[in-house]
Structures are given as C-alpha cells and as structure tokens.
Amino acid sequence: MNVQIENAMPGGFVYERTHNVIHGAVNGTAFLIVPVMAQNQFRIQLHADIEKSKGKENFLSYLHTLEQRHPFVQYAGYNGRNTVSINVESREQEDKENLTILVSELSSKCMESGIQNCCSRCKNVLPLRAAFVDGNPVLLCENCFKQEMNEAAGQGMRRENMLLGLIGAFLGALIGTVLWVVIGMVGFIAGIAGYAIVFCAMKGYEMLGRKLSRKGIVICILLSCLMIVGAEYVSLGIAIYKELGDMYFLSVGDSFSLVPAFLEESEVAAGVMKDLIFGYALAVWASFSSVKARWKQVEQEQKSHTAAPL
User: Fold this and answer.
1) CATH class belonging to 5-154
2) What's the pLDDT at 52?
3) pLDDT of 183 strictly over 60
4) Contact, 223 vs 197, CB < 8 A?
C-alpha cells in the first residue's frame, strides 16, 4: 500500500496516525476504517444494532451482493452480534472514491433498514465515541468508555506481596492437608484431598498476597507437593498412635517421634511410597483442569490493558 492515507479518506473523516485508524460519520452513521498495510487493504468496521432491526434480512442481503457489485471488495460479512466488516483492496488513486462509495452506500442502507450504531461492548444505542482499546478500534457508549479508561488506568495497582502470599498459601494448604489426613484415617487416598491442598494454597496466596501471579501458582504447586509428603507423615504418626498407643502407653508426640524408625522398615517405606505415588497421581488428575484454567486467567489478567479516545 503506497498511497498516502490522508489522500484515501472519505470527506469529513479523520486519520489518527498514532493508532492507524480512520474514523468519521456519514448521515449520522459512524464508521471505523483500518488500513491493513500487510494485506494491501482497508477494513471498514460498522458497529450497529442489526439484530433488533426489522430490516435485518434486507441489510444482510445487501452485504452478500457487495463482492459481486464492487470488484475492489474482498470480503463483506457480519459477526452475528454487532459488527459488520468489509475488506477493501487498495487501488491507490482509486481508494478515496471506493471508500466513499462504500460508506455512503452503507449509511443509506442503514437508514433504509432502520439500523443504528451501537456500543461495541454493551450494544446499547446511545451517544457513542470512537476509542482504541487493546489494539482495536471500537465505538463505545460513555459508560463503557469510562469503564475501559478506569481499568486501563488502574491496572497494576494491586501489587503482589510474595511473602504474605507464601504465608497464605501455607495456611491454605494446611487446611487441605487436614482433609488428606482425615480421609487417610478411614483408609482412603482421594484425589479430592490433593485438589483441596492445591486449591486452598492458591486461594490463600491470593487472599494474603493480594494478587495471584503465574509465579505464585508455581509456588503453590511446589508447596502443595511438600504438604502432601507432610500429610502422609502425619497420617503415619496417627496410625502408629492408634495401633500402639494403648499397648505401649505412647503419647501422640511419642508416636510421631517413632515415624523415622518405622520408615526404615522396608515394608512400611514401600507402603508409604505407594501411597505417595497414588496420592500425587490422583492430585494431578483432580487438579490439572482447575490449575490450567487459573493459569490462563492469570495470563489474561497480566496482559497490558490499554484504552485511549480517538
């Protein structure tokens, strides 16, 4: 695309060089035009409340004819919600005329079909303003615009406190560990206990650390792995107390002090190792989907959110 963008704009439209967006209105219908240099095209965007219009079918039929009627139109489509997109091949000296023809036709068809612009976010038909949000040009009502601007201005205000997060993760994992021990006392190893340790650790980290990052998730998983070992140790100590406490007049403390000696017995060590292998496998099975979803959520939250008026 070698054409000067300013020379390709329809009359009355404005080119925002910083965001590479052309915007303007024809007969009260607002349009956004994005020069796509790599594809040698312009993309016309119309955000409108088409679903509520009685002339919806008439308007969509018109869209389907654009590629046949205008050889410079490469694509014309509707996303089924509130956005019409038309890709226009750049023909340099013809661009201004071609773009003008299309926005004029589209505005006339909108008037004929009773279609009005709407907010890209909430779809309300209100006074709108053009904006640039997360790299995309949009039309927003005043409420949505303020919300986007506030979110962009406020991102990063909640700073992660890793020390408090670690304390929270430990306390949370401790709650899950209690469940592991209780279930173990009745002779079961359940994946739900491993899931509870991981879930409670992440929840505790987020509550005290104020923010859960990907680093925080890794810390919670590693801590949970250690807590599972601790839970198995406690379970063995309780088992010793139940079996030998009355017979040898052992206190709970005495029973736990005997755990290392019992672990030197190959049969006991093999049993504990078997329990740990099954426990870790069940914990991974129960927790994988939840941790994966949380990881993606944190990844999205950490992406830079930008918003600016056009």
Assistant:
1) alpha beta
2) 84
3) yes
4) no
